[in-house]
Amino acid sequence: MKDLKRLLHYLGPYRKDLFLGAFLVFVETGFELFIPLIMADIIDVGIVNHDVPYILYKGVQMGICALLSLVTGLLYARYAARAAYGFGARLREAEYEKIQQYSFSNLDHFETSSLVTRMTTDVTVIQNAVNGGLRPMVRGPSILILGVGLSFWMNAKLSLVFFVITPLLAVVLFFILRKVSPMYGKLQKAMDRLNDVVQEGVTAIRAVKAFVRGDYEEEKFQSVNKELMQTSEKTFHYAVLNLPAFQFTMYAATVLIMWFGGNMIASGGLQVGDLTGFLSYVLQVMNSLMMISNVFLLLTRSLASAKRISEVLDEVPELSAPEHPVTQVADGSIDFENVSFKYHKDAQEYALSGVSFHISPGQTVGIIGGTGSAKTTLVQLIPRLYDVSGGRVLVGGRDVREYDPKALREAVGIVLQKNVLFPGTVRENLLWGNKQADDPTIWKACEDACADEFLKRMPKGLDTDLGQGGVNVSGGQKQRLCIARALLKHPKVLIFDDSTSAVDTATEGKIRAAIARQKDVTKLIIAQRITSVMDTDMIVILEDGHIHAVGTHDELLACDTIYQEIYASQMKGAEE
């Protein structure tokens, strides 16, 4: 319950709409509860005495109450909708803002599909609970209290029926909620799994078609879809049991009141109009109890979703700025001082262990090693995408943990191993590197990255639409655009994580030459091809998370067996 209370703080400016909506429901309920009293007077006074003017007078009163009830109900709908959808929008915004603060290690705690579900389905559940639950939450108790009070005022003996019926309904509702409550959490997890399969299938649709695995993907989707269906059926099978239980008790109460009330009319202890009005109150009270039960069901499901949303909001970013952060990076020097790192605190082995080396400002450093040797892990510590488990990483002579993360990452440009382009035009994607860049600056970066070669052939040039994730360009073209985007940052440190693997050798040579001309920038190049790093100032060879050797191309070729083997295998293939 505390999760739901905490989320209500995000109502913000919509709090007044919520309270105004609740007040309007209370007023609407009051008008409706006057109608049975007026109806009783019409029967007992107007009809019995054949007083038509009195009947018309009371009829007008009843019409006014009904009209006012309608107006207040419509106003409630407006304010409740504003409160619910405004609340939902603020919740989604808060979640998205929180996710932007996450480090890579925080993101490892959640699956992407789960985060999507928590920002969509779970927020919608909370939103619907406010929109659909506010009315019965206010109306139910109001009718219950006022209806029972007026029933006692009309006839105290008949009102004793409520003391028999209400405990029975409470027991039924308790067992239903006890059964359904844990099922809602399972339902949302089933939704996570469905979204996960849909996301994977749509993202990898080209690979699915290339390997003719459509049938397999359909079977996988059918499996999770069936699981969601069965979970939903089981959950709502128990949730709807409150309806027959309430209908049974409602009709039982009506029969009992008609029996005892008829006897009281026959003995002269009760008038027909009073019994009619009393039955109206009974039906309203029973409906109010049903509303309250539905509120409990909505609340129970909302609690499951509120807990999932709170998990996102309560996640503490593992990387945060210090109290007095450094906001300027002096130069591009990099130092690794006995650095160790593992992705999870409880992991048995380190991904990096005992890494120490120094890179001077403006140097070009090549990093090579076998698959899984932690090359990408090493460079991710420089812009502090992860924090070291032991030792220190220094940039510009300062520990990266002393910097404001934004300032540090502004000074470090990185071209990721997995190229990422966003929907939109080429210009919109390149401006991620520098929002103020004009067209000549953009074209210069494209020229250095050899992206101008294909952009000039496109009719719209920089205004060419890349499509979803850059589907309108090839893999090599994606890499060159990502390189141009990084160059536009004018960083002090530039990292290329195997970012020319899809580019031909001649184009790669042009890119290397353009990058080499940037003398004031420290360059780190992760590569599989030895030709990509053989002209660098220093080469670092990683093996199983340890530094195997450090040196220039000539030094390593003369004395390091691993480098000799790599060189021999690749250059022999090139010669052949």
How can the largest sheet be summarized?
6 strands, mixed
Question: How are the strands ordered across the major sheet?
Answer: 6-7-8-3-9-10
Kindly give the count of domains.
2
Gross CATH architecture of the largest domain: Up-down Bundle
> Are there runs of 5+ residues with pLDDT below 50, and where?
none
Query: What portion of residues is helical?
Result: 55-70%
CATH topology of the largest domain: ABC transporter transmembrane region fold
- Count of helical segments? 20
Query: What is the CATH C level class of the largest domain, in words?
Result: Mainly Alpha
Give the structural class: alpha/beta
Shape: elongated
CATH homologous superfamily of the largest domain?
A: ABC transporter type 1, transmembrane domain
Cα distance spanning the termini = 71 Å
Tell me the radius of gyration: 35 Å
β-strand percent reads 5-15%
Order of helices and strands: HHHHHHHHHHHEEEHEEHEHHHHEHEEEHH
Mean pLDDT: 83
**How many β-strand stretches?**
10
